[in-house]
What we know:
By secondary structure, the protein is α/β, with parallel strands linked by helices. The protein has a single domain (about 10-180), classed as Glucose Oxidase, domain 1 (3-Layer(bba) Sandwich), CATH 3.50.30. It is about 20% helix and about 25% strand. The strands form two sheets. A seven-stranded mixed beta barrel has the order 1-2-8-6-4-3-9. The protein has a two-stranded parallel ribbon with strand order 5-7. The protein is globular. About 30% of the residues are buried.
Amino acid sequence: xxxxxxxxxxxxxxxxxYFEGIGFGATKKVTGELVFNTMTGAGYNETLTDPSYRGQIxxxxxxxxxxxxxxPWEKDKFGIFKYFESDSIKVSGFIVNECCKQPSHYESVKTxxxxxxxxxxxxxxxxxxxxxxxILREEGVQVGLLAVYNSGEIPNIEELKEEVKIAExxxxxxxxxxxxxxxxxxxxxxx
Length: 191
């Protein structure tokens, strides 16, 4: 059971299975291809901003994510982001077992929760990411729906199950054009 002050969240798979948890990040509903990432607790900032995850709801298998926070959007001397793979979060949603509330790192400027809020990306925690990973590994990826609500709201699971049935498969879109640069960019040693 969720605590009263927590934000309810639900992940619904296209086949009707669902997982209830606690929301973080943006309060909204998204659909996407449900995938998993087996990276250790490090690298979540890179995962979130990796253009190859466009249109996907990413499940992290490591049990604690967000422990070193989020660094600033700094670029190196060549104009390339130091700590990120692109200029914004590319995933549609983020699934973790536990989202660290008090990160510790000398370069951290915000929590993972705050980062997702600023980028308008929903996240869910306190669900069994191992079970989700096992489903995806054994049965293949499938479209999912992630909904994060305000405290006190009660999700209607049956409505969410109907919504995910008609959700668009993001692979039917031209995803690379959504994340590619619109103009040629040249990087040289003199930058």
